[in-house]
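ingest -> validate -> predict -> emit
validate: passed (alphabet ok, no gaps, 258 aa)
predict: started
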Amino acid sequence: MSDEPILLTERDGHVAIVRINRPKVLNALNLELMEQLAGLFEEYDADDDVRVILLAGGERAWAAGADIGDMATLSAEEMSKRDQFAQWERIKNIRTPIVAAVSGFALGGGCELMMHCDVIIASETARIGQPEINIGVMPGAGGTQRLTRAVGKALAMDVVLTGRFLTAAEAERHGLVSRVVPREHWYSESLKVAQAMAALGPIALKNAKESVLNSEEQFLSDGLKRERRLFYDLFDTEDQKEGMGAFLEKRKPTFTGR
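emit:
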């Protein structure tokens, strides 16, 4: 076991920054890492000073899949009992917006973790895919579901059943990532996006995130009702009064998260 932490953290104003730090295995995701990541995200979610979370990997790899050595010899019953996907559910429930800074390989569990984020900034070097089929399994942390919702059945089938990688340009064209940036700016541009979001009203950010995610799970009529309720609720916040007042007074708003 290495003495190096598997997650590196820092703060930049209202942005909490987390870096995956397992470079020797291309940031492969094991159970320990996912437990720590879910715990960190929950701490940030409960911290009013954190308005945006920035999750980054390394330049060569965001995360090149799950740690195969962590599960290769397990049976179906053992995999079920250890309930490793409980950590993914914890991450799915985070209300604070998460920006992904993706460079290099985002494969298998790495692709699935990327799809748990809300705004995805990808380096032009990014290579994204679900190659589990090559080792006799399939995606299990939402890869078949979120990928299909993002890019459609035809491309999802191609990626999942052949194991091929998408380029950053392909991923952007099909709606899998938000923006593609030059390789030398993958982290700096991601931080800029996170900082810009953190300057906005944090309650509005959380409500807006919730409403967009609801659209994937509800009928349109139900989603519209929930959207309206989340919209109306913001009119009981100081941030709404500040934001609209600043607009009318032609000045920059200062949001407090109240």
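The CA atoms of residues 158 and 164 lie 7 Å apart.
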